[in-house]
Structure formats: structure tokens, C-alpha cells
């Protein structure tokens, strides 16, 4: 029969082993929790980085790398959004098509780097003018820009187009090979329409294009308008 001393030693030993077991289990649980916490932090950090990278990619896809304003793709997407909104609320939409006068001559005379600088300055000047909610300034291609203005009247459209023309002229960029003026100027065609069965985005753009052509034919450095079907 075991003595009381032996029994005590066995009990104490058992308790020590139990304590060690509980302590090891606690430590294992603690380590797992720490690992889980660090993993969650890492996942959250990577998620934020991925979202930022995706946002940057979206910007690159939809923005013109030279001027910083929207490109044709970005404009088309925003135009679709604003067209749906205007359709829902029965609001007018205006388009300004802007072309830099004799830009090929400018590049041929002063060089393409000067041409790039001019486009950047024009884009910046236009962006300062058109900052209301829904207004879009985009580079439509080459030396052509397009501006979308939702919820404006014909009078406001004409006034905005004239302000844009003067804003570019007031940059006072010397243009020695222009037949329109001594400085860089733009021709602007505008159109306004109410979304509906008789009017479409294509018709609105087409009308602004026709107006721009009219401005060029009539001497450039001027604003002209064209009616839409609706």
C-alpha cells in the first residue's frame, strides 16, 4: 500500500502535469489567436492595396495620360450615366465639341513637345471652367476636346461655350502659323437636347460635330450651334 507521502507526490505530480497541459493548451491557443490576428491584418492590408491598385488602374483606363482629363472611353461611360439620369428627370443635356485651330501647323512650326504643352494647358483651363456636378471635360481624340453639361439651358450653353473660347485665347500661347489669330484659339460647336424617342446620344454628338464644322468653315475661333431632332 502506498504511503501518504507517495500519494501526495503522485497527486502533486498529477496537478503539475495538468497545469502544464492547461498552460501548453493556453499558449497554443494564444499563438493561434496571434497568428489569426496577424493574418487578418495582412489580408486587410492586401485588400486595401488591391483596391487602391484597382482604382489606379481604373483611372489609367479612363483618363488621358497626357492631359489628365477623361479619355474617350471615360467620357462615353459618364455620358451614358448622365443620359440615363437626364431621361429619368426630364432634363436637358448639352455638348460642346472643341477643336484647337490649326494645331497641325502649330506642331509643324513649334514641335510636338510644344503641342503637348499646349494641350495640357488647354485641358487645365477647361477643367477650371467646368466643375459643376455632372460636368465632364474629356479629350475626344488628337486636338479635340468634348464637354458635357447636364441640366443647362440653350442660353447657358452658348454662354459656357463662349467662356471656354475666351479662356483658351487668354492663355496667350503664341501661334505663328495660325490663320485665325496670333495666339492659340479654338473652334466650338454646341448642341442641346432632351433625351427621348426622337433624340439620342448619337444625335446629340452628331449635332455638336456639325456645329463644330460650321465654326471651322466660318473662320474658326468662334462658337456655332446646331439643333438636334428632339
Explain what this protein looks like in three dimensions.
By secondary structure, the protein is an alpha+beta fold. The protein has 2 domains: 62 residues; 154 residues, Alpha-Beta Plaits (2-Layer Sandwich), CATH 3.30.70.270. The protein has 6 helices and 5 strands, in the order H-H-E-H-H-E-E-H-E-H-E. Strand 2 and strand 3 form a beta hairpin. Helix 3 crosses helix 4 and helix 4 packs antiparallel against helix 5.
Defining key terms:
single chain; 230 residues; alpha+beta; Alpha-Beta Plaits; 2 domains; 5-stranded mixed beta sheet; 6 helices; 5 strands; 59% helix
Draw up the topology in text.
Layout: H1 4-62, H2 72-89, E1 93-100, H3 103-110, H4 112-129, E2 136-141, E3 144-150, H5 154-169, E4 186-193, H6 201-217, E5 223-225
Parallel strand pairs: 4-5
Antiparallel strand pairs: 1-3, 1-4, 2-3
